[in-house]
Structure formats: C-alpha cells, structure tokens
Amino acid sequence: MSKLLDPKILMAIKELSLAAKTTIEGFINGINKSTIKGPGMEFSQYRSYQPGDDLRLLDWKMFARSDRYYIRESEIETNISIRLVIDASASMNHSDGDYTKIEYARYLAASLAYLGNLQGDAIGLNVFKSHEVISLPVKQDFQHLSRLFFQLEQIKPEGSFTKAAHYKQLYSGASQKELTIFITDLYQSETEIFDLLDTVSTLKHEVIVFHLMSANELALDFKGYSTFEDLETGATIQVDQSSIRKTYKAKLESYLEEVKTKALNKRIFYRMLSTDEPLEQALRDFLNQRKKLKV
Question: Quick one: 51 and 151 in the same domain?
C-alpha cells in the first residue's frame, strides 16, 4: 500500500483522477474498511413496536423469526461540505528533486476530494493566487469531481498570497457545517494567511491546515547552492549552508512550534507534511476530523 501513496510514484501517473483513485483504493485496502462509509442509513438496533410507530419501519424478518413486532432503528450519517483551499502563490513552486510543493498539494487535494466524494460529501475548491480567488462551488456528484480535478490540473502558482480584500466575501452568509482543508506552505509577507484562518475559525467551521515543507527546507540541504532566491519577491541572499545549519534548524523548530500553538489557540488542526512523505498520514488525519463532524 505504501508504494501507492509514494509521491514519486504518484507524480508519474499523469492523469490526476486516476492517481486519486489509485491512492484511495490503496489506502482503503490498508485500513479497517468499516471506517469508510458511504451515504445512507447504517443499522443501529432493534426495539419493540410501540403504538404510533411508522409501520414501514417494521422488520418483517424479525417478526417471522420471533412472532413479535420490532422496529429497525438506524443512524443517518450526516454528510458535510468540504472546502479545499489551495495556496497557489509563487513559493509553492519550490522543488525538492523531481516535483514541487504545488504538485504534492495537487495530488493531496485530489485524493481528499475523491475520498470525500466516496463518502457522499459535497466538495468545493478555492485556489488563492496572485490577488485573486478561483472558486468551484460545493457540490456532490461525479461530474463536479471531474471539474475539480481539471481545475487542480490548471493551477500555476504565481505572485504572492491573495490579500483579504479578495476573499472577505468568500465565507459571507456561510452557516452550513463545513470542513475547510487548507493546503499551504504558510509563506507570507505579513499576516495574510493567518488573517484568512482567523476569518474561517470565527465561523466555527472545522479547519485542517496541511503545512507543506520540503526535505531540503527542513534539513537546509540544497546540494552546494550558496545563492537563494525568494520565489515571490525575487530577492536573493548569499548563504553558507554548513555554517548556519544548526542555527537554522533551531529557529525552524521554534517557528513550527509557534505556528502549531497559534493553530491550537484557534482550534485549528495543524499538520506539517514533508513532501517526500507518503500521503497516508494526511488521509488518516482527514478521516479523524471527518469522524468528529458526524452527529
């Protein structure tokens, strides 16, 4: 199963819908299938018939076996709206080896969308890039999922993260229970990304933040490069990696702890993902959050 979730293998599957299907089928085969449920009614228990009960709920097989009337009670699964939010600013073009952060984000989002659709959830997509928001409304059908895959395939990161003026109306009037999944590298010039998270968290929606970092970022190992360029501003800096690596890692650890604390204070589920890691943990985190939303 783990090979099917390996990013390097996924990137070799050019068709996004096929990659998502392959990922989810491999994932489901490796876990307890009872945790994956489709829409509809799940059996809960039997109880004795009481005057006034709907006769359509009588279980005639139980009557045949026991000669008594029983009502079959079921639990109705509550499906939700899942909004996938993708950071498509230029920093998501950062690469480590053969693929970029945006490619990892694309396959992660496609897999989550496929899994959500399989469970009967409505899926929507927002792509934040270069002072605009690309939106696909929340719907639940296979054709809509195909359109979502197409939009994911078209993402070309550029510019800086979208300013608040471009998304402040995005959540206006939103009252339906929703799970927002934000896939980002959390690179921001000021506080624009956390401003967005503030907006979402105040609406009492469940929020998952998947923070993407590459292995070369985490280890400060760029194979001898000494000049680094900011992908969003174009600014460059000279760095002696070996001399600052220890300080860099200490500051990075402090930064990640600060981000985690900020998210926790906003009741946001935060997970840092290295882009060389399989998608399995992200999918498990999604299922755990999904379970919390069921009533």
Answer: no
Number of domains composing the chain: 2
* pLDDT band per the 50, 70, 90 thresholds, residue 9: confident
Same domain, yes or no: 262 and 215? yes
pLDDT at 4 over 80: no
Give the pLDDT of residue 185: 96
Domain of residue 226, residue span = 2-33+79-292
Dihedral sign from CA coordinates of 164, 169, 172, 174: negative
Q: How far apart are CA 4 and CA 182, in angstroms?
A: 23
Compute how many other C-beta atoms are within 10 angstroms of the C-beta atom of residue 147: 15
144 shares its domain with 217: yes
For residues 77 and 105, the answer to whether their CB atoms sit within 8 Å is: no
- pLDDT tens for 158-178 read 998 877 666 665 665 555 678
The one-letter amino acid code at 262 reads K
pLDDT per position as a tens digit, 119-159:
888 999 999 887 778 889 898 888 899 999 999 999 999 99
Confidence (pTM): 0.81
Measured between its terminal Cα atoms, the distance across the chain in Å is: 31
d(CA 111, CA 18): 10
3-state secondary structure 202-245: CCCCEEEEEEEECHHHHHCCCCCCCEEECCCCCCEEECCHHHHH
Burial profile 67-76: b = 16 or more Cβ within 10 angstroms, e = fewer: eeebbbeeee
Dihedral of alpha carbons 183, 186, 187, 193, sign:
positive
Domain stops at, among 20, 52, 76:
76
Q: Of 203, 170, 150, 189, whose CA–CA distance to 15 is shortest?
A: 150
